Amino acid sequence: MSMEKWADAEGALLDGLKLQPDDPELLTALAVVALRRGERTRARALVDDVLTRDPFHSEAQLLAGELRQTASVAELAAVSTDATHLRLGAGTTVDRAWAELVSYEPGLARMARRFAGPAVRGTGTVGGNLVNASPIADLVPVLVALDAEVVVAGPQGTRTVAVDGFATGVRRTVLEAGEVVVRVDVPLASFARSTRAYKVSRRFDDDISTVSAVVGIEQHGGRIDDVRVVLGGVATTVVRARAVERALLGRTWDAETLRAAQAAVGSDATPISDHRASASYRDRAVRGLLQRWWYETGHDAPTADVDVWGGR
Ligand SMILES: Cc1cc2nc3c(=O)[nH]c(=O)nc-3n(C[C@H](O)[C@H](O)[C@H](O)COP(=O)(O)OP(=O)(O)OC[C@H]3O[C@@H](n4cnc5c(N)ncnc54)[C@H](O)[C@@H]3O)c2cc1C
Description:
The protein is of the alpha+beta class and 312 residues long. Helices cover 41% and strands 20% of the residues. The strands form three sheets. It has a five-stranded antiparallel sheet. It has a four-stranded antiparallel sheet with strand order 8-9-10-11, with helices on both faces. A hairpin with a 6-residue loop joins strand 10 and strand 11 (239-240). Helix 2 (24-36) runs parallel beside helix 4 (58-68). The relative contact order is 0.09. The structure holds flavin-adenine dinucleotide. The site of flavin-adenine dinucleotide (FAD) has 19 residues, from helix 9 and strand 7.
């Protein structure tokens, strides 16, 4: 509803309630007043009342959208940390989620900067990124690489499922009818791995991924003894690249291991061609991202500035 209409509706109220008590305009205006006073439950009841009478009442529909935004539900937007986990409420905005994750792992900062623009970052949520179930969602591969779990609530109670496997296909998830995502729990132990995230898109700013790769590695005595490689944009869901991980595990992180990892990409990735990129481009881009990772962290990599975006 435009500000003028709100003012008109409130004016009508103040002018002595010339409207019928069940008039949709009156009920909608009362809902606006309730919302402004922070009485969300009453606002929701009023809006539901209007929509029961007139499901196509456009102002009430707009208000319903506002009221149902998970980012504005305090319980769903809560972020907390305890001894074992960083817990991100489903309504945590994308901006806040990246800030939290980057505070634990600065290696995620580059990817964080590449997620949409301020408007989307300030309103989009963690829950939305997950339930969208897009193979090119950018938070999802990071959460998979960090062994995160999704807390889901529904008519049958609460259950916890791994982010890895939460999406079962494009726009499909394991959510049952009536279930919502409440929270994502990120184990603090996963930050023991050094994790980096890479995104390829046609533009630097405000563009979705063509492909992405999130890599986490822990090394002892020169050997890789824990690793996660997660890829976006190469299958119908974000995938954990287990063949690539096997090629890396137990090896020294050097050029020979890089070649073995690159050779394994074909077992994990089944990219398609679309308007954004061809399948072979995606395949080569993923191998290139592994090479870039080696350039940045490999034992025998030449010291070189490989930041093609000029430090942005
Ligand atoms: C211009 C633009 C740029 C974008 N750039 C990127 C990008 O760079 N990277 C990226 O990953 N995405 C990007 N996106 C996609 C999108 O903004 C993000 O995926 C965002 O995280 C979605 O969150 P949302 O709260 O807006 O979800 P919504 O669109 O509101 O919801 C998506 C789906 O999830 C459901 N849903 C939401 N929350 C819950 C919950 N708690 N429980 C159950 N179901 C729920 C909704 O009902 C809906 O079906 C972009 C979008 C736009 C418009």
